[in-house]
């Protein structure tokens, strides 16, 4: 009965590879997000989707491409991985914006690029 | 420049005491501010939301204040317990709207000793 689930939990890969992280929410929310937490623990938004439509696209390299097949799923595909991509990536969801419906986060995917 | 700052040094207190965590922001005019708790290896969990027209918000042993003049929010945990040990994050929407684009502080780690 996990509300926001991400897979995999750990991802270790080499530079130059392409990888994907999957996220699913069963809360019935219409908005989903990807956040990145770096080694200094800062959480930064990358993307948000509302009903499968891209709403927020922060200054993120084009190598990162989100895909939302339906409003319960938001996947993140990363091409040509670089060392600096190593971080923990969190998926989150909310109903509308965050004013009345705060974010529900998954437990993160720790990506290590070697 | 816009900043949201929390005390990066860990806060160590004795069980039963009140923990007070600080969140300061610069060059934002948020309509609301949120507090989250993050345990190691887990995603942030929402605790409280306080709006700009609210001075104080309470939930069980938690209390949050919001001073828009000082540009500061204080987060209090009364009668603290070892189970309260975690990292606490404050967050605001920089667009003062309902976008879900939350900006997070780097968090303050609280350690409650029995």
Brief summary:
Chain A has no helices and eleven strands. With 114 residues, chain A is mainly beta.
Overview of the molecule:
The complex is a heterodimer of chains A (114) and B (114). Chain A is built from no helices and eleven strands. In chain A, strands 2, 4, 5, 6, 9, 10 and 11 form a seven-stranded mixed beta sheet that branches. In chain A, strands 1-3-8-7 form a four-stranded antiparallel beta sheet, with no helix packed on it. In chain A, strand 7 and strand 8 form a beta hairpin. The mean pLDDT of chain A is 92. With 114 residues, chain B is mostly beta strands. Helices cover 0% and strands 54% of the residues of chain B. Chain B contains no helices and eleven strands. In chain B, strands 2, 4, 5, 9, 10 and 11 form a six-stranded mixed beta sheet that branches. In chain B, strand 4 and strand 5 form a beta hairpin. The chains are: A mainly beta (114), B mainly beta (114).
């Amino acid at each position: 009965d996990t509300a926001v689930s991400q897979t995999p939990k750990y991802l270790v890969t080499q530079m130059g590879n392409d990888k994907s992280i999957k996220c699913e929410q069963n809360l019935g929310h219409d908005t989903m997000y990807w956040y990145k937490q770096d080694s200094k623990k800062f959480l930064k938004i990358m993307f948000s989707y509302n009903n499968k439509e891209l709403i927020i696209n922060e200054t993120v390299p084009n190598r990162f491409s989100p895909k939302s097949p339906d409003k319960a799923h938001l996947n993140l595909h990363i091409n040509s991985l670089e060392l600096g991509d190593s971080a923990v990536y969190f998926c989150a969801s909310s109903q509308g914006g965050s004013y009345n419906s705060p974010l529900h986060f998954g437990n993160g995917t720790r990506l290590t690029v070697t | 420049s816009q900043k949201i700052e929390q005390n990066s040094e860990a806060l160590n207190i004795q069980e039963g005491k009140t923990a007070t965590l600080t969140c300061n922001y610069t060059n934002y005019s948020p309509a609301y501010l949120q507090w989250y708790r993050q345990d190691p290896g887990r995603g942030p969990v929402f605790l409280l939301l306080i709006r700009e027209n609210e001075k104080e918000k309470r939930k069980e042993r938690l209390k949050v204040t919001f001073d828009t003049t000082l540009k500061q929010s204080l987060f209090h945990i009364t009668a603290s317990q070892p189970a309260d040990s975690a990292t606490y994050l404050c967050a605001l929407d920089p667009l003062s709207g309902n976008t879900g684009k939350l900006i997070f502080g780097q968090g303050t780690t609280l350690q409650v000793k029995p």
